[in-house]
Amino acid sequence: MNYNCEKFIDGYIESFNRTNKSQDEKRGLALPKMEDIRTLEEELMALFFPGLSGSESKSKLISVVTYHMENVTRLLYDSILLAMSYEDKGNTPIRALEDRAIGIVDDLASHFKDIRALLKLDAEAGLKGDPAARSVHEVILSYPSIETLAVHRVAHHLYKLGVPLVPRMMNEVMHRQTGIDIHPGAEIGESFFIDHGTGVVIGETTVIGNNVKIYQGVTLGALSFPKNGCGILLRGAKRHPTIKDNVTIYANATILGDVTIGENTTIGSSAWIKSDIGPNSLVLIPDPEIRIKQRIVKKDQ
Predict the structure, then answer these.
(1) Domain ranges in the chain?
(2) What pTM did the predictor assign?
(3) Mind listing the pLDDT tens digit for each residue in 38-71?
(4) Which of 85, 145, 161, 246 is 20 to 30 A removed from 10 (C-alpha atoms)?
């Protein structure tokens, strides 16, 4: 005998509370697809760094850029329109949403050259900051920091334009792929480098200056979540650190809350910081006590 689940279907469908919605309202039920976001991110890397695979010659640069630009803008338009339609739930005419999606993609595409210039500085910072790196191309091809920043700098621009869902989806794909978790709201300056990267967390209202370097396991997080008089979270309130220029933060350091780390400061490994640190500082925790005992090894008889 085969099990029949049909007796549960009607009741389950009712839990979605969609059966009485108009056709206009139903148009906003579709969400952007994660597989499209993953494809978008691959196309962004090909757009920002054409020729790295060795298959595109300089003479074909314009055709290569045109191809990837078309793919990127199409994927962006489709995903942004779906996200806005889902959030809008049929309150705005579809043509108005389409026009807005076109305007957002146009705005972003006009800044691609600026984002690419920032990514080149990020890659150069990686070369300068890691003695194991042999070339800028090696940094771009091999270091998770660069792909994560390429995606973040695009997602951050969309976030500032008020695009729902898509920026978070973009950064979450990178989080799953690299272990680096950057909220799209975080502001990151020039020449930023994340060495190794696994376990790095950078919160929504974090502000990072120029020439900043952080290592694996660093958390730039919130100490607490501000609430209004009714106990409701105040979304968007500044609750994450501000990292000034020329700061280095070593592995597994944790910096929490709306604190400022002054310029030219070095934060040592595993430090736990909840207050402002002035400029030109060196922050270290005491060396742990290490005890070494000789093991007694019994010889076989």
Answers:
(1) 27-179, 199-284
(2) 0.87
(3) 999 999 999 999 876 555 555 588 888 999 999 9
(4) 85
